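Ops channel
N.P.: pipeline sanity check, posting one input/output pair.
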């Protein structure tokens, strides 16, 4: 109806989704699922809620195509958001307050409740216009992306349900762009979350001697920092993009001997450890990189050990870098690019996403996936305070998705469901 499709009701629905606090560590997943299901019902989409893991509902929606033999397209999104420091926000992060410039402030406004709702609003527009899909479109609303995706998107891609969906292409989140060109991503960097640990002889704080835990750890940290600087230099010099360098950031340092009175000052501790968030592009040889870690950053000769708290493989099931071809040889890329242009958008050359998204799980299993969020002219504030999205930008994004979804749903070529035919 006219009322349902007015700009103000579109914005109200977005606000309603944003107002559901799905921040970790206690995301209100059932409220989010109920909301998505109510939207699906209003659009007459088929729906299914799956709990691959208890208390972590995943909602799957289906807009059936006229030709069910054609492989489907999946529009992926996650329902969870990262935590907030409420008092550091100018507007409460789950109020979805709209200021006089039309900026909607909320955690998730960029990452990625916007995208999840825009998919649905685009479908509403297409339905209102009388469009009927030839190819089936699925939409997934998954939990836990922000804490690694193992209980969300990874469970989905490994499931029989997913197999039966016969998915040929996945669209997932991207990043906002500060200029007028949208960004699209054909790969993610793989997280390698490393903890290195040094042990050493404890002793009097006044004594100078070799092989203390602190000294052993600090030698590694010096080496890690030199490596970090060399990668950062390539970025600063413009020789590589953010997605093409290896980033190495220290995220914790832990040592010392503590008592209820505080740290003991005159005791050199026997253990020291550091946590490092490492992200490697898909072309990096992870085995060689791990050898470097074992030899230079955590050598046993310096009483050091290491472990990975998380590690995503850069390779897919075919043993090739888990990248999606983003050129004229991939019809899905061509459709996406043309649809964005036809809807009045501009697209930057595709890049590698600096973080890890759920798209990684699909690419790892050979499914082509592109990361794209229709957010331009907006500072990237995902995971930051005062995350916002302008309502005009949000509405424009719906037009962009309407064009993309229409193009995908109309595409009648019999495509393969796996990426195996796209060679690097
Ligand atoms: C180990 S997967 C972590 C996923 C997370 N994704 C979004 O920020 C990230 O840190 O990139
Ligand atoms: Zn996200
Ligand atoms: Zn995020």
């Amino acid at each position: 109806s006219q009322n349902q499709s007015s700009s103000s009701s579109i914005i109200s629905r977005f606000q309603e989704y944003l107002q559901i606090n799905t921040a970790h560590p206690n995301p209100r997943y059932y409220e989010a699922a109920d909301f998505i299901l109510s939207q699906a019902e209003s659009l007459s989409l088929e729906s299914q809620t799956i709990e691959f893991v208890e208390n972590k509902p995943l909602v799957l929606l289906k807009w059936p195509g006229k030709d069910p033999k054609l492989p489907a397209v999946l529009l992926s999104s996650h329902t969870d958001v990262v935590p907030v420091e409420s008092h550091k926000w100018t507007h409460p992060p789950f109020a979805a307050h709209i200021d006089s410039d039309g900026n909607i402030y909320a955690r998730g406004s960029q990452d990625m409740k916007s995208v999840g709702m825009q998919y649905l609003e685009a479908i509403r527009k297409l339905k209102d216009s009388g469009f009927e899909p030839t190819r089936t479109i699925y939409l997934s609303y998954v939990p836990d992306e922000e804490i690694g995706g193992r209980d969300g998107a990874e469970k989905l891609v490994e499931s029989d349900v997913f197999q039966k969906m016969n998915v040929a292409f996945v669209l997932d989140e991207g990043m906002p762009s500060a200029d007028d060109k949208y960004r699209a991503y054909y790969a993610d960097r793989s997280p390698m979350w490393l903890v290195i640990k040094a042990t050493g002889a404890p002793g009097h704080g006044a004594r100078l001697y070799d092989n203390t835990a602190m000294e052993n750890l600090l030698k590694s940290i010096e080496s890690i920092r030199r490596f970090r600087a060399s990668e950062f230099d390539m970025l600063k010099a413009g020789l590589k993009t953010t997605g093409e360098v290896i980033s190495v950031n220290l995220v914790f340092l832990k040592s010392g001997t503590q008592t209820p009175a505080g740290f003991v000052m005159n005791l050199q501790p026997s253990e020291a450890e550091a946590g490092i968030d490492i992200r490697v592009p898909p072309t990096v040889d992870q085995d060689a990189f791990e050898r470097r870690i074992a030899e230079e950053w955590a050598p046993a000769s310096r009483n050091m050990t290491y472990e990975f708290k998380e590690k995503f493989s850069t390779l897919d099931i075919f043993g090739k870098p888990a990248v999606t071809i983003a050129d004229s040889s991939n019809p899905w890329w061509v459709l996406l690019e043309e649809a964005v242009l036809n809807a009045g958008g501009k697209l930057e050359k595709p890049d590698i996403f600096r973080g890890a998204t759920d798209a990684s799980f699909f690419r790892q299993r050979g499914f082509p996936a592109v990361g794209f969020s229709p957010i331009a002219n907006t500072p990237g504030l995902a995971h930051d305070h005062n995350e916002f999205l302008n309502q005009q930008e949000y509405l424009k994004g719906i037009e962009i998705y309407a064009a993309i979804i229409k193009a995908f749903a109309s595409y009648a070529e019999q495509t393969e469901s796996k990426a195996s035919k796209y060679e690097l």
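N.P.: looks fine end to end. The two ends are 47 Å apart (CA to CA).
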